[in-house]
Amino acid sequence: MLVLTSLEDVTADLVIAELGQRDVPVVRVDPADIDPMTGGGLVFAARIGADEDRWGGELRAPCRVLDLGRVRSVYHRRPSPWRFDHLEGRVRDFARREAQHGLAGVLFHLPIVHVNAPSATARAEYKPAQLQVAADLGFTIPATLITNDLRAAREFAADHGPVVYKSLRGVPPADGHTGAIWTQRIAATDLDKSVNVTAHLFQQEIDKVADARITVVGPRVFASMIEAPGAPLDWRAGDWEQLTYTPLDPPEGLREQLHAYLERFGLLFGCFDFAIDRRTGHLTFIECNPNGQWGFLPDADAIADAFASLLQAG
After folding, report:
1. 310 vs 314: CA distance, rounded Å
2. Which helix (H) or strand (E) holds 57?
3. Helix pair angle (127-136, 254-265), 10° resolution
4. What does the alpha-carbon distance between residue 156 and residue 200 come to, in Å, rounded to a whole number?
């Protein structure tokens, strides 16, 4: 098994530990270590053609040598960004693009099981696509507006208030650090000409009693109700040590919808977020993260087992 992720990825650690208990050989690689100045010492030589009809060759790290032809499955987690920081300007950009299309191009297109295939993950990260597929499959979704039109935004806030704002992609990483913009409640009077600068996502706020995180790995479904002190708009914004988790039995038909959603995007795994309506207990679809975090959940060991089974099956 090949695991593509950074050194500090504790979520990947859970899956690797489970594979180890099954005596499954695992090679963990951060593709960004191809930069010789990082000290990672990653070297590769991939071949196809002549007598080889699929990518073969070697991937060499300081402590391991991987025969690409023997890889049965790939777990794509969170590799580091390409670095090459010792290079300047266009040379640095050229090295990053060549590494992406060369090394990642080989690893991402080995003709085996990928969890999840990066191309599928990239498609599934677009929130407009998520909401369209969710609507197609019969999920309840919030009234939503994506716009850079101030007038349209004010009218939407007036018609559907209370309304929340969410970022479509989040804050780009900088200097090795990442940021976050949490869900925020807004009113029509909060909006100004800055709306015209770029695209914004506004949704009707759901009067929720709690949130649901449903993690799907292959055929297995793990569902938890998440409650945070003070019932904040976004449970991720507070102290995660104060969160409480309760096992949740998905409503009838929801499992089939979840699997149909993943199939539409070509995914084998996804972390679904729902809002639980205060009055009815109904689940409203918020989003699906095709590479979401799950190591903090109380059933993390069972989820790791599901990943190991999926990867081991190849």
Report:
1. 7
2. strand 52-60
3. 130
4. 12
Question: Span 143-205: which CATH code?
Answer: 3.30.1490
CA dihedral (237, 131, 15, 22) in degrees, to 10, reads: 150
Q: Is the peptide bond before 219 cis (omega within 30 degrees of 0)?
A: no
Q: Which two tokens stand for residue 143?
A: 């009234």
Domain boundaries, the chain: 2-115, 118-140+208-294, 143-205
292: tokens are 């979401």
Q: Tokens 């790290």 identify what position?
A: 61
As a whole number of angstroms, the distance between CA 171 and CA 161 comes to 26
pTM of the predicted model over 0.90: yes
Best CA proximity match to 254, nearest among 294, 289, 212: 212
Do 118-140+208-294 and 143-205 show the same overall fold? no
Q: pLDDT tens across 6-50, in order?
A: 999 999 999 999 999 999 999 999 999 999 988 888 999 999 998
Cβ contact 146:199 at 8 Å: yes
The CATH classification number of 118-140+208-294 equals 3.30.470.20
